[in-house]
Structure formats: structure tokens, C-alpha cells
Design goal:
5-stranded mixed sheet, alpha/beta, 124 residues
Length: 124
């Protein structure tokens, strides 16, 4: 499922993609992607945590490399980044009220997406 990704000819989505949004308790929509390993043996899941002003698509090459080595990958756009909800009207400006919001989003991502659907062990 690649409907949630912004694709370009020179940066296609990795194979075995699943994507969607989860909604935080304060109503923010957080975009995520999960990519299954394509090589065997299965070695676990790498959870990629992006940097400021980055999005899932920026990591497609890294995701393909990890999947080719037997790792699944789980990744999400932090609130205020990529296609996740913004806290300001100006979509060009990233903003978060508290770093704790990021920690809660990561915890929810693990509980709702990673732990139920991704094979351990887990690497960040």
C-alpha cells in the first residue's frame, strides 16, 4: 500500500509496505509506515526515528537496504513533520508544545503498531 507515500521516479517505495495513520489522545494524526523484510533469515525490526524536518520518504533507500538484509522497518513522521498533524496553521513550520508529546507519540506507536505487527527483537 503506497497511497500514503509521496513517490518519485528516482525514489520508489520499498516493497512490502503498509502504511496509515494513528490518532493520539489529543487528536493529532500521525503517519506511519511498516516495511517487511524481503531477505531471510528474519532478524527483527529496526524502528527508524527521523530527524527534524524529515519524513518517511527520505529514508526509503535505508529501508530498502535494511529489508534486503532481513530486517523489517517501522517508521513514523513526528507530529509537526512530514504528513503528520501540525500544531500551527503554517505547514512549513514544525512545532511541538513539549518534548513529552514526542515521547507519548513514540510510546503509542510501539503499543499500537510495532509490538502487534512487527517481529522482534527491536532496534532503534
Amino acid at each position: 500500500m503506497t497511497d500514503f507515500f509521496h513517490l518519485t521516479e528516482d525514489n520508489p517505495a520499498p516493497r512490502n509496505a503498509a502504511s496509515g495513520f494513528f490518532t493520539t489522545p489529543d487528536g493529532k494524526k500521525i503517519r506511519y509506515g511498516v516495511f517487511a523484510a524481503v531477505a531471510r533469515p528474519l532478524l527483527g525490526t529496526v524502528v527508524l526515528l527521523t530527524g527534524r524536518n524529515e519524513c518517511i520518504e527520505k529514508y526509503f533507500e535505508t529501508i530498502r537496504d535494511l529489508a534486503d538484509r532481513g530486517f523489517g522497518v517501522a517508521i513514523f513522521d513526528w507530529r509537526g513533520q512530514g504528513d503528520s498533524s501540525r500544531l500551527l496553521r503554517d505547514r512549513q513550520r514544525g512545532h511541538v508544545r513539549s518534548f513529552r508529546d514526542y515521547a507519548r507519540d513514540l510510546e503509542q506507536f510501539f503499543e499500537e503498531i510495532v509490538l502487534p505487527d512487527c517481529r522482534g527483537p527491536y532496534y532503534i
